[in-house]
Amino acid sequence: MVEIECRTEVELRRDLVRFSGMLHRLGFMPGTSGNLSVRLDDLRLLVTPTGVSKFLLRSADMVIVDLQERQLEGSRKVTSEVSMHLAVYHHRDDVTAVIHSHPPIATAFACVGRGLDEMLCQEAVMTLGVVPLATYATTGTEEVAASLVAFIPDHDAILMANHGAVSYGSTLLQAFQKMETVEHLAQIALVAHQLGAPRILKHEQVKQLRDAKTRYLQNAI
Fold first, then answer.
1. Exposure check for the chain: N or C terminus, fewer CB within 10 A?
2. Dist. CA 151–CA 79, nearest whole Å
3. Measured in Å, how far apart are the chain's first and last C-alpha atoms?
4. Going edge to edge, which strands form the sheet with 157-160?
5. Would the pTM of this model clear 0.85, i.e. be above it?
6. CB contact at 8 A, 134 and 148
């Protein structure tokens, strides 16, 4: 049984509105693109609807679905990409929030067939580690979820070929911060390669940073 963050449905609806607006302002969700979800309980998700600007989203616009994609409540239609969210929830018991967006530079990496797999800075190791690239899949189909499955257990963010990115965490804030970090690491990688001869962290340096991360997480408990 997953441990659900102790927040009411009203609070979670407001959270979805707030983080949707923040992602829109960052340029990660232009037009009506992108979608977010949070767990209501072990059986239901609260999800953003399709065809609505995340800048104009209201609490009442959210829809409720079960873990078989059946819409239970809501006057609007659920996003066609809900299967992507469900794939994450099915394979990660620790996750209670999922974000799919299109951060421009990270998406550009996905469009040239590159994941964020070079450990160029210490932050990359301490936060996300490798952000892999999933194979191409047509948006709105079950192929998208299938393309992610192999990466979900061991990664907290994934790039999707010619599409965008997905991130997830134990809270909506955590999922949002991971999406921010994906774009930040993509910016660093882009500029480092433009400047020439980027210096990738050595294996021993990565190991030391991972050990430091482990100690940090233990102290934070």
1. C
2. 22
3. 21
4. 71-73, 63-66, 44-47, 35-39, 97-101, 164-169, 157-160, 133-134
5. yes
6. yes
**In the numeric block, which tokens belong to residue 127?**
């936060």
Determine the pLDDT at residue 140. Answer: 86
pLDDT of 4: 52
Q: Which of 33, 34, 46 is nearest to 5 (CA)?
A: 46
* Stretches in the chain below the pLDDT threshold 70: 1-5, 220-221
Give pLDDT, residue 1.
44
CA distance 71 to 47: 10
Q: How many residues does the chain have?
A: 221
- The set of residues, in sequence order, having a beta carbon less than 8 Å from that of 73 and lying 6+ positions away, is 63, 64
CB 23 within 8 A of CB 55: no
The domains located in the chain, with CATH, are 9-220 (3.40.225.10)
